[in-house]
Specification:
Length: 177
């Protein structure tokens, strides 16, 4: 079976510490993802593509800076891509996911735990599953190293980026060619 993310009922969000004080949150507005799943509902593969230009923190100037060569360099690297390399059932509704994240022209491994709901039928006869995942990564692993030192110590933007994914997924049969 093939599961495809419903972007109108899903979100990919991130947060970073600013000045060591506040947490600044953002999201990506444009993305697509799918999973290959056994008939029993066991995940075999996950792939996702995020449009780096779609970053949105609610502040135009900050969003423009994030799209610039200081961070995503979205004109040169318009896609952020994730491809799973291993999926391990942890029991219940949890799966350990490892894979390669390509960002800013650099591919680096990441891991996180994914939780999924039991399938439900929507009012239109479609089967849907909810998926939640989250974790953190170090942005410097992908060459996103822009920062400024603060006079009393610390930096403007933390290296750690936390992410969360809340997705509603449409379940569909794979049609053999």
């Amino acid at each position: 079976m093939r599961w495809t993310i419903d972007p109108t009922h899903s979100s990919i969000e991130f947060s970073v510490r600013h000045l060591g004080l506040a947490t600044v949150k953002g999201r990506f507005r444009t993305f697509e993802a799918f999973a290959e799943v056994s008939d029993e509902g066991r995940l075999h593969k996950i792939e996702a593509v995020i449009d780096a230009l779609s970053v949105d923190t609610g502040t135009k100037e900050r969003d423009d800076h994030l799209r610039s060569p200081d961070f995503f360099d979205a004109a040169k690297y318009p896609e952020i891509r994730f491809v799973s390399t291993a999926l391990k059932a942890l029991g219940g509704n949890r799966t350990e996911v490892t894979g390669n994240l390509t960002l800013h022209g650099v591919t680096y491994p990441v891991g996180f735990t994914l939780e999924q709901s039991a399938p439900v039928k929507d009012p239109w006869g479609n089967t849907r599953v909810a998926v939640s995942a989250g974790g953190s990564l170090n942005r410097k692993d992908w060459g996103l190293s822009w920062n400024q030192a603060l006079e009393l110590g610390g930096v403007v933007v933390s290296e750690e980026v936390k992410f969360s994914i809340e997705a509603e997924v449409l379940v569909a049969e794979v049609v053999a060619a």
